[in-house]
Design brief:
Blueprint (H helix, E strand, L loop, with lengths): L1 H5 L5 H10 L14 E4 L7 H21 L2 H15 L4 E4 L3 H19 L7 H25 L10 H17 L3 H13 L6 H4 E5 L3 E4 L6 H20 L7 H17 L15 E2 L4 E2 L14 H11 L5 H10 L21 H5 L11 E8 L2 E7 L4 E9 L7 E7 L4 E4 L5 E10 L2 E2 L6 E4 L3 E6 L8 E2 L9 E4 L3 E4 L4 E6 L4 E4 L10 E9 L9 E4 L5 E5 L8 E5 L7 E4 L9 E9 L2 E6 L2 E6 L6 H4 L4 E4 L11 E11 L4 H9 L2
Parallel strand pairs: 1-2
Antiparallel strand pairs: 3-4, 5-6, 7-8, 8-11, 9-10, 9-12, 12-13, 12-14, 15-30, 16-17, 17-20, 18-19, 19-30, 20-29, 21-26, 21-30, 22-23, 22-29, 23-24, 24-25, 26-27, 27-28
Helix pairs in contact: 3-4, 3-5, 4-5, 4-6, 5-6, 5-7, 6-7, 7-8, 7-10, 10-11, 11-13, 12-13
Length: 654
């Protein structure tokens, strides 16, 4: 930054001029520390005093770092010392969680810039660290652990995100790896809506990631990108790539939000796809246009990381960043709270000279859906269009089946039944790029897992497909005579079968079947339940609280379940054949070869559930649900959805 500003290089110098024009970056700024800062509740709402002083400390720290003028360093230190020697408490109602999170990560970032300044006495820096650890951090970690004793889906993503950002920033400031890891681990697999799998609620074709607050309003939706970006950048600077986690899931969210809020030349907004979102409080069936077009200083960071640091294409984030540069301070925009929800000055602090674009498109995925194959990929920074190629054997030879694809980066193929291999290349100004890594899709019905339970003893149940999806009998499960050969007997108290981690992570359309002898019992026992706890799972129960069989799948807990209620419970005291299929968004539930329920809105497939470490036959993700009491045989998972005739034939063949 210092070099670019010294040579008046654009756009850094433009960002510098915005910084020095802001009164918070001037030496005349006088801090106004408070013993107590309140946000929310019936008392005085004095939190703007805090965020304005933080903005001033950050702005002055930047001016010193870039210009070398120690007068600005002294001003930043003065502000931070004033607060660390005065602040005793953060208060208010539950909105104090927002104050501790947003202002916590911002203040810690300002302190991190100044930590090596020789004019900041070691005792004063220690006092600042103590303030962050003892006043901000306890509120942050308590919120993520308890969510004020509410349902974990109650709070919007931004509440989690700001508290994660604060914990991470304080961990870095205080050289506390435990705190840093808390934030990283929550981002990856936390239970709340701020964890990236929930924050980017649904990834549409072309990697447009529907953000969790999309159906609420766009002021809060764009704040999610500002907070998520701050987390990813802090982690990157410590050697952890959260930007790239889960195939650039954060970028998918950023591209969706940028596209939806960028004004076109004719004054209208781009349209984006949307799927219904539900939590404990609301069901939102459509995109919210409230506050659409909100501008926040967050896009320079996204654009410069993915495009100029990594060489990927991020067209909508790029357009937004270039349209609003130079970004100013966080309070210069019409934000939802009217305050400094982000530090700002991204054009100055984040702009980078471009690296060589990646050599080929990457992140290619190919998922079967109702007999078609939906492909998505990440583009190259200098790509103008893309070519899709297909082969019938791995490694080719490939035939080009589509070209000229520009936006979104997705293609839906309709091949015949079989196994197909795909690659994608980019067209650039200098010619065609190399091919991407290969992706494979199976459009035929194909056995994925087959446990016949024919072992006579031991705790192992072999997978007859050879795919290695071996079952492990646990909790007293035993081999007994079954419908065909032997079966597994589950006692209803502790017995179940465990399957390998993530074994359905590559499954899209499917058929799951089994022969089941149920001794009866309470509702919500499980025939199978594959998931990662009570937030993300796919299950089949012989009887729900309404007295009928139910299949469901969710990525947002019980409130977000999509599925089927059958028209009857599983019969007891006899062998019965159960099957469930998914083809695209159409799910069908069978009992003894007959359809007992269906749904057309099941937009989730097993791969969307994400990593699963609790894949069970006979046991529920919910600890209060009863274990299955009975016998299970011939448990099969197929890729692809069988027809009703195929299901009937499977029943009759037993």
């Amino acid at each position: 930054m210092a070099q670019k500003v010294a040579t008046q290089a654009s756009p850094w110098y433009d960002g510098w001029n915005v910084l020095i024009a802001n009164g918070r970056s001037h030496l005349s700024w006088s801090p106004r520390p408070q013993a107590e800062v309140d946000r929310g509740g019936s008392g005085a709402q004095n939190y703007p005093v805090l965020y304005n002083d933080i903005a001033a400390a950050y702005a002055c720290a930047l001016r010193w770092k870039i210009s070398g003028d120690t007068a600005y360093a002294d001003k930043a230190v003065q502000i931070m010392n004033a607060w660390s020697s005065t602040l005793q408490r953060l208060g208010g109602d539950t909105n104090v969680d927002l104050a501790a999170g947003i202002y916590g990560y911002e203040f810690a970032n300002a302190g991190e810039i100044m930590r090596n300044y020789v004019g900041w006495a070691a005792t004063d820096f220690a006092a600042f660290q103590s303030m962050m650890l003892n006043i901000f951090y306890p509120i942050n970690v308590d919120f993520l652990n308890r969510h004020n004793n509410t349902d974990v889906t109650h709070y919007w993503a931004n509440w989690d995100l700001c508290n994660m950002a604060s914990i991470m920033a304080i961990g870095v400031l205080c050289d506390d790896h435990t705190l840093f890891d808390q934030a990283v681990n929550y981002f990856i697999d936390g239970a709340g809506n701020g964890a990236i799998a929930q924050a980017v609620y649904y990834v549409h074709p072309g990697y447009l990631g529907q953000w969790q607050e999309t159906g609420r309003d766009q002021g809060h939706n764009t704040l999610g990108i500002a907070l998520g970006g701050a987390i990813c950048e802090m982690a990157w600077n410590q050697g952890i790539d959260l930007y790239g986690y889960d195939n650039n899931r954060f970028l998918a969210g950023a591209e969706y939000v940028a596209k939806a809020n960028l004004v076109q030349a004719d004054g209208t907004y781009n349209t984006v796809p949307y799927v219904t979102y539900s939590n404990v409080d609301v069901t939102q069936t459509g995109f919210s246009t409230a506050s659409q077009g909100t501008i926040r200083p967050c896009w320079a960071l996204v654009y410069n990381h993915y495009v100029n640091r990594k060489g990927l294409a991020a067209p909508w984030s790029t357009k937004f960043a270039l349209a609003i540069q130079p970004e100013g301070g966080g309070g210069n925009y019409g934000t939802a709270s009217g305050g400094y929800d982000q530090l700002g000055y991204g054009t100055l602090t984040c702009t980078r000279d471009a690296v060589t674009p990646v050599a080929a498109p990457n992140g290619l995925t190919a998922f079967p859906s109702a007999g078609q194959v939906v492909l998505s990929w990440w583009g190259v920074a200098n790509g103008t269009s893309y070519n899709v190629k297909r082969a019938s054997s791995s490694g080719g030879s490939y035939t080009t089946i589509a070209s000229g694809i520009a936006d979104p980066l997705t293609y839906t193929d309709t091949p015949s039944a079989g196994t197909w291999y795909y690659v994608v290349s980019a067209q650039t100004a200098s010619g065609e790029s190399a091919n991407s890594a290969e992706a494979v899709a199976v459009t035929a019905v194909q056995l994925h897992t087959y446990l016949n339970f024919d072992e006579a003893s031991g705790t192992s149940a072999a997978d007859a497909t050879g795919n290695g999806h071996t079952g492990t009998l646990a909790g007293g499960a035993a081999h007994v005579a079954g419908k065909i050969g032997n079966a597994v007997s589950l006692d209803g108290s502790s017995g179940y079968v465990s399957l390998p981690n993530n074994f359905v992570a590559d499954v899209s359309d499917f058929t799951i079947t089994a022969w089941v002898f149920w001794n009866g019992g309470k509702a919500w026992t499980r025939i199978f339940d594959f998931g990662t706890g009570t937030g993300r799972y796919v299950f089949l129960t012989p009887k729900n609280s309404g007295g009928v069989m139910r299949f469901a799948i969710t990525t947002n807990g019980g409130h977000g379940e999509l599925g089927i209620n059958g028209n009857a419970a599983l019969p007891t005291g006899q062998w019965a054949h159960v099957a469930v299929t998914l083809s695209g968004t159409a799910a069908t539930l069978y009992l003894n070869g007959s359809v007992i329920g269906s749904a057309t809105d099941v937009v989730f497939a097993p791969w969307r559930v994400g990593p699963t470490a609790q894949n069970w036959i006979g046991r529920s993700q919910y600890s209060g649900d009863p274990f299955f009491n009975g016998t299970i045989d011939e448990f099969r998972i197929y890729r692809g959805a069988m027809s009703s005739d195929q299901i009937s034939a499977l029943v009759q063949s037993a």
